[in-house]
Amino acid sequence: MQVKIVIGTISFMLTMMILGFVALQEPARLERFTAARQGRQIEQGAHLYDSQCATCHGVNGDATECYDAATGERIGCQGLPLNYKPMLCGDRTARMVALGWDGTKHGFVAATIAVGRFGTAMPAWAQEYGGPLRPDEVEDLVQFVLNWETEELCAQPDFVFEWPATIEELLVAFPEGDAARGEGLYTTYGCSGCHGNLTDPASAAVGPWQGNLPEVAATRVEGLSAAQYVYESILYPNNYVVADCPNGPCTVPSSMPNNFPLRMGDSPERPQDLIDIMTYLGVLPLP
Ligand code: HEC
Ligand code: HEC
Questions:
Q1: How many structural domains does the chain have?
Q2: Which single residue of 122, 196, 239, 255 could bond 117 by disulfide (Cβ 3.0 to 4.6 Å)?
Q3: Given the CA of residue 49, which atom of ligand 1 is nearest to it?
């Protein structure tokens, strides 16, 4: 009798110890499980990104190197950079502030991918909104995009250039333009993806053709020189929205990206890019 009680007590205590040990391990096990699941999502998101998104947002997500999905030919990137500090760093990123998004960063990316951006080249991707992707695929892409946030990216200096009101003032700091460099940048920033090249009017897909921009720009807004008009049109597309686009009336608000002040002003030297593009377009140097 005595012996049975002792054995019973010991085995009870042993069971409790094992249970306690398992319970203590549970958070670590859950964490490993979650990390493994997230790893799989990121991997699947990477495949989806390569096949669906890279053609507009670039192979590295920085919207500088894009290839036509069908022909493999190098093309101008139409999308915005995603592997990009203003898009990823901080709880409330610069892009969320610029677009007035009050929810979470995850929600911002998820909603953008699911719904797209009406009036722009960014289509809706979720089946719920007429796109091709299931909810879990949208979530895989969100995890993949958010995974670009690294300490290195976010440690980049936070610099925001104060754009002067007039092109003349900008020229004081950046007096010389380089048209050949501007031609490359016109593709790198994705301008050519929407505006085509300067030689063939039929190459313009989304925005007005710019082969004749110096003449057109001089007549767009009374009292504005061609250079001042183009300067403002690139930085603030909604200041003046053109009436006619290649596919019919241009949409209002403008479907041209409005974050070039951020992208062309993220370092003290970068505004040179705008001067070079305007030189390539033929509205600089000033007459
Ligand atoms: C046909 C070109 C195109 C494709 C393909 C495309 N996008 Fe976009 N995307 C755009 C454009 C253009 C914008 C900017 C819209 C605007 O002006 O607000 C954009 C914006 C975004 C943004 C918000 C960026 C910001 O700074 O506001 C995210 C996130 C995004 N895209 C993710 C994706 C993902 C993920 C895919 C693939 C499933 C994808 N895009 C496919 C053209 C594209
Ligand atoms: C996603 C497509 C898209 C991209 C990318 C884009 N634009 Fe545009 N752009 C448009 C559309 C659409 C318009 C016409 C509506 C408006 O006036 O904003 C326009 C208008 C303009 C105008 C005024 C043209 C006129 O005939 O009056 C200029 C100048 C211009 N864009 C320059 C640029 C430059 C330079 C870049 C690259 C740094 C660029 N755009 C990138 C779509 C785009």
A1: 2
A2: 122
A3: 37
Looking at the structure, tell me whether residues 143 and 223 fall in a common domain: no
Based on the domain organization, do 145 and 189 belong to the same domain?
no
Range of the domain at 117: 66-154
Query: Atom 7, ligand 2: which residue's CA is nearest?
Result: 256
End position of a domain, from candidates 106, 122, 154:
154
Query: Rounded to an integer, what distance in angstroms lies between the CA atom of residue 91 and that of residue 287?
Result: 46
Q: pLDDT 10s digit of each residue in the chain, 287 long?
A: 577 888 888 888 888 888 787 777 777 887 888 888 899 999 999 999 999 999 999 999 998 889 998 999 888 888 899 999 999 999 999 899 888 899 999 999 999 999 999 878 899 999 999 999 999 999 999 999 999 999 999 998 888 899 999 999 999 999 999 999 999 999 889 899 899 999 999 999 899 999 999 999 999 999 999 999 999 999 999 999 999 999 899 989 898 988 899 889 988 999 999 999 999 999 999 99
Domain boundary among 122, 154, 186: 154
Q: Is the CB of 221 under 6 A from ligand 2?
A: no
Tokens of 4: 């049975």
pTM > 0.85? no
Closest CA to 174 of 183, 187, 192, 161: 161
The answer to whether residues 201 and 146 belong to one domain is no
In a domain, 270, yes or no: yes
3-state secondary structure of 105: helix
Residue of minimum CA distance from atom 1 in ligand 2: 256
What is the CA(174)–ligand 2 centre distance, in A? 22
Burial class (CB in 10 A: 0-12, 13-18, 19+), 151: exposed
